[in-house]
Design goal:
Layout (H helix, E strand, L loop, with lengths): L1 E9 L3 E10 L4 E5 L6 H8 L7 E6 L2 E2 L13 E4 L3 H4 L6 H6 L7 H8 L4 H4 L8 H13 L5 E5 L7 H18 L2 E5 L3 H7 L2 E4 L1
Parallel strand pairs: 3-8, 3-9, 6-7, 7-8
Antiparallel strand pairs: 1-2, 1-4, 4-5
The structure holds adenosine-5'-triphosphate (ATP).
Organism: Lentzea albida
Protein name: ABC-type dipeptide/oligopeptide/nickel transport system, ATPase component
GO molecular function: ATP binding; ATP hydrolysis activity
Length: 202
């Protein structure tokens, strides 16, 4: 399980107070709530990228101690953000972006197949591809280290319906294969109804 227990977090002041949430292996939990309610803040806490003021995060029974990019337990959690252009180095080809977390570059082809990126696209840089194609590369990169949990923060906001359906399909297939748990943050109630097993509102 990926669990937030009584988490209070924010910046100069808390934006979420005493929030608890659990994502079980294989489960998809939706996270909804009005703009500014702290969904992304909770996502960053659960992705071990933001230290809460109070409360704990547990991954498969182990309490998280380090909240920073290099934290040991970070590789168990994959993250996808709303704007793929902000999360890929503009100088990198998609191939290099996908390979970033990998020691063994051999898996790039397999990951690209998973998200349906062709060889031609893998050779291009972010400004030469669409948002949807770049988000596919970000999904491949997020799955590169076989995360136990995947956090999708408004992953599909920039995308059309068919790309959204394709990415959700890839994530579902990954979950079925590996038993990973997913936290899906979205403003789109219709999408969450279809995608999530249950939805929590902040
Ligand atoms: N880095 C930051 N520094 C200071 N305040 C921040 C920072 N990031 C977010 N906030 C503030 O924290 C509050 C919650 O923001 P957050 O992005 O978590 O909400 P959200 O529910 O994801 O919103 P949205 O649906 O609009 O993406 C907002 O008032 C926001 O202005």
């Amino acid at each position: 399980m990926l669990t937030a227990k009584d988490v209070t977090a924010g910046y100069s002041a808390p934006v979420i107070t005493d929030v608890s949430l659990t994502v079980a292996p294989g489960q998809t939990v939706g996270l909804a709530g009005p703009s500014g309610s702290g969904k992304s803040t909770l996502a960053r806490v659960l992705a071990l990228l933001h230290k809460p003021f109070a409360g704990t995060v547990e991954i498969d029974g182990e309490t998280v101690t380090g909240f920073r990019f290099q934290a040991r337990q970070r590789t168990k959690i994959g993250v996808l953000f709303q704007q793929p252009r902000l999360s890929v180095d503009p100088r990198f080809t998609l191939r290099r972006a996908i390979a970033e977390p990998l020691k063994d570059q051999d898996r790039v082809g397999e990951l690209a197949d998973l998200v349906m990126l062709t060889d031609d696209l893998l050779g291009r840089r972010p400004h030469e591809v669409s948002d949807g194609q770049l988000q596919r590369a970000c999904l491949a990169r997020a799955l590169a280290l076989d995360p136990r949990y995947l956090i999708c923060d408004e992953m599909t906001t920039m995308l059309d319906a068919s790309t959204t359906a394709a990415l959700v399909g890839v994530i579902r297939a990954y979950q079925e294969r590996t038993g990973a748990g997913v936290l899906a943050i979205s403003h789109d109630a219709t999408l969450l109804n279809r995608w999530a097993d249950e939805t929590v509102r902040l």
